[in-house]
């Protein structure tokens, strides 16, 4: 029996320079095995111009009142693009899960729930600190984890990422899932 996502829409932001051309398709395939074909996934390629190094803005349709039922999944540089999308007025209240994003994503609650995963030994993020910020309602909208399985970037951690995204699609609190992946 297929499981059900708590989100209506799932956007996958991936920079092919970080993960290769097929990563997001493989990730979506694994998630569809778990959640069935009715789970709505939209791949959002990140278009770069020659010589451009900062992630561009990507045009997306306004989700309307469904923003709070939208999950933004960011892989590598796609995590920063998804973070910037979450900050748009039309996407306020959407949820974000990001893996190996570049520095600059804040673990706060201003724009919506966030779960951020970094490699815990890769030099840029040298901590395995778990950071949480609770909202006034007592939820866990901002979570940050350092995982050893991500130290070489997202490409080698496809199954761990698929597992964690799937867990987030079902439940907001990822502390048990992150502990299971890290072995701690």
What string gives the helices and strands in order? EHHEEHEEEEHH
Please state the overall shape, judged from the principal axes of the Cα atoms.
globular
The percentage helix is 25-40%
Q: What is the tally of helical segments?
A: 5
In what range is the share of β-strand residues? 15-25%
Structural class: alpha/beta
| Major sheet size, sense and barrel closure | 7 strands, mixed
Low-confidence stretches: 122-131
Biggest β-sheet: strands ordered side by side in the sheet: 2-1-3-4-5-7-6
Our Rg estimate from Cα atoms comes to 15 Å
Query: N- to C-terminal separation?
Result: 30 Å
Q: How many E-type strands?
A: 7
Arithmetic mean of pLDDT: 81
What is the count of distinct domains? 1
Any overview of this molecule?
The chain is of the alpha/beta class. It has one domain. Helix content is 26%, strand content 21%. Strands 2-1-3-4-5-7-6 form a 7-stranded mixed β-sheet, sandwiched between helices. The radius of gyration is 15 Å and the shape is globular. The termini are far apart.
């Amino acid at each position: 029996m297929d499981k059900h996502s708590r989100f209506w829409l799932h956007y996958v932001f991936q920079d092919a320079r970080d993960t290769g051309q097929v990563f997001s398709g493989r990730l979506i395939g694994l998630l569809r095995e778990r959640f069935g074909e009715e789970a709505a996934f939209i791949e959002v390629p990140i278009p770069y111009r020659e010589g451009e190094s900062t992630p561009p803005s990507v045009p997306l349709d306004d989700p309307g009142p469904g923003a709070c039922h939208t999950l933004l999944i960011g892989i590598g540089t796609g995590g920063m693009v998804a973070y910037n999308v979450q900050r748009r007025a039309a996407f306020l209240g959407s949820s974000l899960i990001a893996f190996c994003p570049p520095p600059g994503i804040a673990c706060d609650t201003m724009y919506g729930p966030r779960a951020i995963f970094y490699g815990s030994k890769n030099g840029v993020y040298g901590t395995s600190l778990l950071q949480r910020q609770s909202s006034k309602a007592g939820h866990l909208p901002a979570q940050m984890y350092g995982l050893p399985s991500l130290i070489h970037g997202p490409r080698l951690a496809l199954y761990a990422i698929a597992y964690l995204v799937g867990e987030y699609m079902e439940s907001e609190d990822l502390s048990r899932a992150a502990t299971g992946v890290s072995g701690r």
